[in-house]
Amino acid sequence: MKRISILFLFLFSAHFILAQNIMLEWAEPGTTNYSNTNLSICGESKNATLKASFSNDPLCPYSGWGANRYRYTINLFKDNVLISTRSFQASSCSANEFYNNFTLTEGVYKVNIILEVRGSWWRWRQRRNGTSSLLIVNRTPATPAFTINGIVPIPDEPIEVCPEQIIIDPSSTSCEDDYYVGIWEFDYLNWNRPLQYEWGKWFEGQAPASINLQQLSAQYSFGNDFLGSVSSRQGEILYGGNLPNNNPRYYHVSICTGYPSWNCASAVIKVKCSCP
């Protein structure tokens, strides 16, 4: 019984030591500050340098033939799917393999390293086969945010604007690969949506620091992007006055993101008929 316990302890210790010998780490491009901690990324992907390493084998060096008697096979996995295999010979019983400008996307990464030693008759014999701990990459949810003419919107509280100056700044939106701008007019007093003038459009890339809402409305309130019921109002800019029911016209403005789900920041604006 004592021998069995000692054998179990030896096998467990050997497995633990081997797990420590094989590592998968990442670093920002152009740096050498490698880490095996999990990371969160903004957007769909992130460029990084990956390093797969094998070191500190307590049984090294192994006897063998030739100058480069060690052969390493390095298998990189994402979500348990093999995405890269590399093989090379070396003279040392430790090795580092780098994946420069590697595109990380959301998922779980690990590396498997097989060490072989060239023995008599130049035959390769496997000495080590182990897998690193997991490197988990999470994607940070996109969060929309914006100001109108420098004012941070308060939910359902109208912002009065001049027709010549309606500038939105959605640059505080974070972790987006694209963003959506949507506008619809409505009756603020009754919270009624006439559905006559509405448009919305997705834009690729990160949201800029300045968008002229009048120019955007004139350019994109057409075709499939126009969602209103009165086609003659396509191409209109935003203006003041009253709705057909004689209540004041207001507009609902939204900046939205789509990852991991639909999420919007909104504002209510009232366009003055004229400004001094």
Notes on the protein architecture:
With 276 residues, the protein is mainly β. It is 10% helix and 43% strand. Strands 2, 4, 5, 7, 8 and 9 form a six-stranded mixed beta sheet that branches. A five-stranded mixed beta sheet has the order 11-17-16-13-14, with no helix packed on it. A three-stranded antiparallel beta sheet has the order 1-3-6. Residues 1-19 have low confidence and may be disordered.
List its traits:
2 helices, 276 residues, 5-stranded mixed sheet, disordered N terminus, 2 domains, rod-shaped, Immunoglobulin-like, mainly beta, single chain
Question: Total domains, how many?
Answer: 2
Please bin the fraction of helical residues: 10-25%
Q: Please indicate the percent range of residues in DSSP E strands (runs of 2 or more).
A: 35-45%
Rg, alpha carbons: 30 Å
Distance between the termini: 96 Å
* CATH homologous superfamily identity of the largest domain: Macroglobulin (MG2) domain
Gross morphology is rod-shaped
How would you summarize what this structure contains?
The chain folds into two domains: 2-139, Immunoglobulin-like (Sandwich), CATH 2.60.40; 147-271. The chain has two helices and 17 strands.
Q: What does the secondary structure layout of this molecule look like, with pairings?
A:
Layout: H1 2-21, E1 22-27, E2 39-41, E3 45-54, E4 70-78, E5 81-90, E6 95-105, E7 107-118, E8 124-131, E9 135-139, E10 147-148, E11 159-161, E12 167-169, E13 178-187, E14 198-204, E15 211-212, H2 213-220, E16 249-257, E17 263-271
Parallel strand pairs: 2-9, 11-17
Antiparallel strand pairs: 1-3, 3-6, 4-5, 4-7, 7-8, 7-9, 10-12, 12-15, 13-14, 13-16, 16-17
